[in-house]
Each structure stands twice: as structure tokens, then as C-alpha cells.
Amino acid sequence: MPRFAANLTLMYTEVPFMERFAAAAADGFDAVEFLFPYAFDADAIAAQLRAHGLTQALFNMPPGDWDAGERGMAALPGREAEFRAHLDTALRYAQALGCQRLHAMSGLVPAGADAALRARLHATCVANLRHAAERAAEHGITVLIEPLNGRDVPGYFLTTQQQAHDLVAEVGAPNLKVQMDFYHCQISEGDLTRRLERHIGGVGHIQIAGVPDRHEPDTGEIHHPHLFERLDALGYTGFVGCEYRPRAGTSAGLGWLRDWRARQTAKASA
């Protein structure tokens, strides 16, 4: 059965951030993820994880100026020193939280970029990810990259699963994997089952949300129970991050999860 992690940036927003750990545990989650922890003290977050028996599944490296629209810098020439400084910050938090996965956001392609600039972006991304993977390996941490859809994040450097897996192959680090978000993948490419089967060996984390509105994974055009079954059949043992915006109250919207768990329990006892 997939191991689900509540995304505390999008879920449980009914309460302040530091109270969301208790809320997630009360609903039966044993793992959490979030976008960024840096506005909070690492020891305080770690205390919440311990108090509620939660595993920190994932968080992102600092993305640059998020409010100004920046979405990472792994692929941005001239920002290498900043990328390395942010990596050091993320690794400190990861060690404090016992987190074994860090997402390195790639950044946005400048408008009007020609082939030469795109080649520089690619080379910069390879070099930065190679460095990040080497540093993270010292702490037993896996670095992740994630393709994002062009509707939600126009101009993002990584847009397809194949592009991401090709990049991982070029970097050649065993602790560099791809974060496969079914929401982004469905919008950008579709054919989720076959893409999952093709790439599962290089997938280090899964995320879910309903398409097209990014609500609970019980409505819209993705049949998530089928994908959960495929994850089990393919031997996926990582986390499935619930990175969606609840329609009207996080706990009230978890019927999909309760139903899935009940079906799996019934199947196991049959």
C-alpha cells in the first residue's frame, strides 16, 4: 500500500503551520512534506515530527525570490554560488529533520532564449545537480528534480518526464532521482500509466492532486486508485505526497484516503 504524506503547505491551512503536524497525525498520516521550512526554526519542526511520530518525506531547496516569481536556480547561469549556499542551508535543515529527499528547483527559462542560451542552461543544471548530488550523498540524502506543467509554471526549465530522466542519466549520480507529480504530468503529457511503467526505476517521489483544479484526488480526469495499484505492482516503496488544495476543509476531504485504506484492508483479509 502506498505511503501517503500530507503536504502541509497546501493542506491543513485551517490552522497555523506548526499545528498542522498534529492535525495530519490525527488523520492517520505518518509522513508529511511541505514546500519550504526556512521561515521556521529547524529544531521546532523536528520537535513536532517527534511528538507526532511523523517522517519528513520531502521539502524543497530555497527557490530564490519566490514572491517575485523565481522558481529555483539550478539551471540559471551566474547563480551557481547562490545555488551552493542554498544547498548548504537545505542540507542543514534536512539533517535536523531526518529528511532524506530534497527537491532542487530548476528555474525559469528567460523569455526569448535562443539555442545557445538553452545549451548554457542545460550545462549549468548538469553541473549544479552533480555538485548537489555529491554533497547530499555525504548525508545519505537523495536529490530530486521535478518537471512542472507550463500552465501553472510558464517557462519552467523542466517540463517532461523524459527530459528529467535524460538529465538524471547525464549527471550520472545514483542519488539523483525524478519527482513524478501525476498532476503536472497529466497536464503536460498524459499517458500516466505507461510513463510510470517506463520510468519507475528513476522515480524517487510521487505526488498527486486532482486534474484540472488541483483538489482532492477523487475527482477530475485521473483515476488515482488505478495508479496506486500500479505503484504497488511495480514495487514502489517511496512516499506519495498529497500536494493538493482541499475543496472545503482538509479532514472532511479525506474520504478518498479512508476509502482506499478500507478497500486495501478488506482485500488483505479476504
Automatic annotation (TrEMBL):
Q: Which residues form the Xylose isomerase-like TIM barrel domain?
A: 21-259
Please give one Gene Ontology molecular function term for this protein.
hydroxypyruvate isomerase activity
- Record: active site: E146 (proton donor/acceptor), E243 (proton donor/acceptor)
Keyword terms of this UniProt record? Isomerase, Pyruvate
One Pfam family it belongs to:
AP_endonuc_2
Q: Which family does it belong to?
A: Belongs to the hyi family.
Output this protein's name.
Answer: Hydroxypyruvate isomerase family protein
What is the scientific name of the source organism? Hydrogenophaga crocea
Q: What is the lineage of its organism?
A: Bacteria, Pseudomonadati, Pseudomonadota, Betaproteobacteria, Burkholderiales
